[in-house]
Amino acid sequence: MLKKNNNLPSNQAGASALAILIIVAMAAMILLVVFKLYPIYFEHWQIQSVVESFEEESGVEELSVGEVAKRFKLRMQTNNVRDVRYDDAIEIYKEDGILTIDVDYERRINIYKNVDAVVVFQDVTEINP
Fold first, then answer.
1. Which of 9, 34, 64, 77 has its CA at 20 to 30 Å from residue 98's CA atom?
2. DSSP element (H, E) containing 24
């Protein structure tokens, strides 16, 4: 004869309504942050593609800094980079025939009321002849 185990609950219990509410609230907060930060990172990827286009271009070492800056601004405009100002974020200079493109800027975005997120981008690319 089988003995009945009285230590087991008679019915199963799932997650409580409070636990489900907390999980949904956490998922909503994570999605909010992702949707707010994605455009900032996408714009930085666009700037990186402009820098990479100079790495792949032949004869860029012979161009003056002013000509490189002019082309950089046009490529930023073509890639629809609007929130990053060239004068504040990008510095282009040439030393000993090495072209250096220094991208250094930060973006601040409001997440909720007085909670902000600050994202800092710092990239230095050297193009050798």
1. 77
2. helix 17-56
Q: Kindly state the DSSP code that residue 83 receives in the 8-state scheme.
A: S
**Cα–Cα dist 129/127, whole Å:** 7
CA 57, 61, 64, 66 torsion-angle sign: positive
pTM of the model: 0.79
Instruction: Please write the tens of the pLDDT for every residue from 69-100.
Output: 999 999 999 999 999 999 999 999 999 888 99
Distance CA(119)–CA(45), nearest Å, equals 13
Token duo for residue 61: 């070492």
Backbone phi and psi for residue 23, each to the nearest 5 degrees, phi listed first: -65, -45
